[in-house]
Amino acid sequence: MTRMVPGPALSMLKEKYDVVVNKRNVQPTRKELLRNVAGKDAILCMLSDRIDREVIDAAGPNLKIISSYSTGYEHIDVEEATKRGIYVTYIADILAEATADLTFALILACARNVAAGDRMVRQRKWKVGWAPDLLLGQDIYGATLGIIGLGRIGTAVARRASGFKMNLLYYNRNRNEKAEEELGARYAGLDELLASSDFVSIHTSMNEASHHLINKDRLQKMKKTAFLINTARGKVVKEDDLAAALRRGLIAGAGLDVFESEPLVASSPLLKMNNVTLLPHIGSATHQTRSKMGEVAAQSILQVLDGKSPDPHFVVNRQVLRTAPSSV
Ligand code: DGY
Q: Which terminus of the chain has fewer CB atoms gathered within 10 Å of its CB, N or C?
């Protein structure tokens, strides 16, 4: 277990098995990771641990499951694990509602200058008392929200947006007719979505097609009054292009919970900009959700080590379900 996680995960595992756990509150170094996986039957990892062929080799032939305490699994060599009949499991949609809440927190913070207002008060720069033009923001009610990636998180965001009577556009690999019917979302091409939205919120998974999906050209297509919100993965946005667009006033602002490199590097120009709200990748960070994520990640391990199949809902490489001895 590469980190201690909130909730019952560790005690669930310890009840039946020996657990080697990294108790330091930092990510294990590569060396520590390679050393500590040796001979293990299961790895419970975080999205910050790169679980590639070298790690799988270092674990050796006992390894039966890599259970990730995350919904993204781009840090795992799924192909290699599948070839070797090793389950890769994730926490699927467990964090969808919490992440949608934080997305909305960023939409509200950007539109209404929440972080800037807080800074103003604390830094004793609020000199005028109430003023008709102090920190004017944008209406959210009735504005247009463009959602890139209408999966579980995107849909949970859309549901919240309906409460604000927002117009909903979405761009997705496939059309989601249920969301169109239930939420009044309209399918749009990416260019149309960018050009028409007051808020563009990213909820796509990280893959080759989504890498730097939002770059200079795409930012140029957005309204000057629009905000970009990213609670998905930092690498979906070309950060240098975003910083340039913010500096040049091509868009009004951004709310970011994820970055190309985490933690955000000290030299990042974003740190000096007032039209961005920055958070330290806390989309799923509620007591309830993080605890449930651990429970689900531990449960998958227990099922596999008990010789059963893990719940398919949480399995990334379902091919293994068909071939593993426990499924026959
Ligand atoms: C995930 O699980 O992929 C999130 O980004 C971390 O909470």
A: C
